[in-house]
Design brief:
two-stranded antiparallel sheet; binds zinc ion
Length: 157
């Protein structure tokens, strides 16, 4: 099995190229994918993060892991595969946001307050998540990573 490492930078003008890459859809659950999810969870917790995308450990596949998923009890719901935003609220909220790949950088970012996301779980079942507040922000942030979009892109210049 591969050993994955968090991709980080301290300089917003030197963004690692991988973070701009568009991630590819997952086509099936494999032991490698589950191992990747496990390592992502470990890395996220070790760095006190609340969300992480596979691209942040150098793997351009559409999978994200979130912590504090208070809407379901199963551990499985922390891992979302091929997540897609279905709806967002028109109302936005501003919050000081950070990213595991940019330690020490925090910015006030405005994002939709509520979001509905469709995804697959690790049993390859369809799941739909309706979230608001921090959970919604986290989903929006991590799904952005899959398109190579970063939170600092929202900072008005
Ligand atoms: Zn991030």
């Amino acid at each position: 099995m591969n050993k994955y490492k968090l991709v980080t930078t301290k300089d917003r003008d030197k963004i690692p190229v991988i973070l701009r890459e568009k991630s590819k859809p997952v086509t099936k659950i494999t032991p490698e994918l589950l191992d990747l999810a496990k390592q992502m969870t470990k890395i996220m917790k070790a760095n006190k993060g609340i969300g992480i995308s596979a691209i942040q450990v150098g793997v351009p596949v559409r999978m994200i892991v979130l912590s504090n998923c208070d809407m379901c009890s199963s551990d499985q719901c922390f891992i979302f595969i091929n997540p897609e935003i279905k709806r967002v609220s028109r109302r936005e909220a501003v919050f000081s946001e950070g990213c595991l790949s940019f330690p020490d950088i925090f910015e006030d970012i405005s994002r939709p307050e509520k979001v509905v996301v469709k995804a697959k779980n690790t049993d390859w079942e369809d799941v739909e998540i309706e979230a608001e507040g921090l959970m919604a922000r986290c989903l929006e942030h991590e799904i952005d990573h899959l398109e190579g979009v970063l939170f600092i892109d929202y900072v008005r210049k």
